[in-house]
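input
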Amino acid sequence: MTKNILFIMFDQLRWDYLSCYGHPHLDTPNIDRLAAMGVRFTNARIQSPLCGPSRMSTYTGRYVHSHGAAWNGYPLRVGEMTMGDHLRALGMDAWLVGKTHMEADEEGMKRLGLEPDSLIGARQAECGFDVFERDDGLAFEGDAPFKGTHSADAYNRYLRAKGYDSPNPWHDFANAGLDDDATVLSGWFLKYSTEPANIAEQDSETPYMTRRGIDFIEARSKEGGETPWLCHLSLIKPHWPYIVPAPYHAMYGPGTHIPPVRSPAERETDHPVLKGMINAPVGKSFSDDHIRETVLTAYMGLIRQIDDQMGVLFRYLEDTGRIEDTMIVLTSDHGDYLGDHWMGEKMFFHDTSVKVPLIIYDPSPEADATRGTTCDALVEQIDLAPTFVEVAGGKPADLDHILEGESLIPILHGETTETTRNVSFAEYDFGHTPQAEHMGLAPGDARMFMVADRDWKLIHFLGGFRPVLFDLANDPQELVDLGTSPDHTEIRAAMY
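output
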C-alpha cells in the first residue's frame, strides 16, 4: 500500500544521460533499478526551460501563464495553491529537503496581514512546504557570483564544522579545485571542470543532501504516528558549477562523450531568436569542442555520483521497510544543451532541454502489472500534483478548476497507456536576457511558446517573428527548421 511519497528532483539533468534512457557509456544502475521497479516515461516534458518557472509549474500543477512566476526570482503570488496545500488538506504532510527556487510574494503577504514567521506565512513563503532544510545551492553567503536569501547556510555550517575553513566553503571547497600553489580554481570557470573539487567526496553537495533526506525519513520513523508524508528531496546537481570531487572527476573522458547533436545549417539560421541563442556567450563557449569535452567530463561524473547516492538512499528504504509503503518519483526540472544545436544552458525548446527523465515506482499491488515498463504517453510535469493528490486519497477531478494536469495513477495501475492530452505545452519569457535587449524587444514581446504532439513541434514567438517547426517523426534530433517550408503550410496552420 502506498502511504508516503518521496519526490526526488535533480537540477539540469538531461533525460538521455541515464543508461536506462539509452546513454551508451554513463552507467546508472541504481536509477535503472528504480525504472525496473516502476514505470519509465519517455515523453515527459516540463512547462518552461528555466528553473524557477518550471518548478513553480510542477509545485502548483499549473502552466506558467496561470501561476505567473515566469522568471527566476519572480514571486509565486499569494493565493496560488501548491501540492503541499492540496496534500495537507487530505491529511498528508509535505516537507522540503533541498531546493525549490521559490520566491515569496512578500508584498502580497503584507497586504493580507500574513506574518512571515507564522505557520501560514512560512508555508506561503516556502511554496507550501514545511522546511526540513532548504538549500537552493547557487544562492549562498559570502563574496561570490550569486548571493540571495535562500543561501546554503546549513551546508556551509556543516562544512566549517568539518574543518573547511573559509567564509564561503560552498564555493572555495565544494565547487572549486586547488592548484599546486594552493590557489582556488573556481568551478564557475569551465576550464577547471576536469579538476577534482577540493572536498572529500562524502562532504560534497549530493551526498550531504541525500543524507539529509535520510535524516528526515529517519526522524519521521522515530516520531511514529500515522500521518503520511511527502518528502521533496531536491538536489542541485548536475547543475553548474560543473565540478565534482574525486574519484568522479576522472571517470569519464572524450571516448565516453556523446557527439554533439548539431548541423552547420543550424548556425546559418535566419531566425533572430535562434540566432541570438546560438550567438550568446554560453552558446559560443559550448560550440568550442574543447570546452564541451571538459564540461562533459564533470557533468557525467556528477551524474554517476548522483546514481551512487540514489543507491545509498534506496538501500536505506529497503533496509527499513519504507520501500514497501513509499512511492518514489524521480525527475528533473529541465535539461542542458551541452553544445547541442550550438547552444549551452537550457533556454529553448529542443527536447534536449524540455524533455526530462521521469520514473515512478508505486509500491501498491495495483501497480504490479506495469513494473519495468515504459510509457510513451504525452506527459507534463504538471501531472505530478494531481497524481500525488490521488495517492493521498483525493479526487483530482474535484480540483480541476485549479490543477491543469492529470493524474498518472491510471497509467501506473495499468488502466490505460495514454493521457487525455493531444499535445504538450511549454512557454518561456526571455525578456530579462541579453538576447532580448540585443534584438530591441520590449519585455512583453520576448516570449515564446511550444506545442508538440508525437509527430510535430511548433514554436510560436511574440514580437512578430515567424514560427519554428520540427518534424519529430522524421527528424527526431530537431535539426531542420521547417518554419518557412512551403510544403508544411498546412501543418503549421494545424498546430496553431
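quick obs: The chain has 18 helices and 16 strands.
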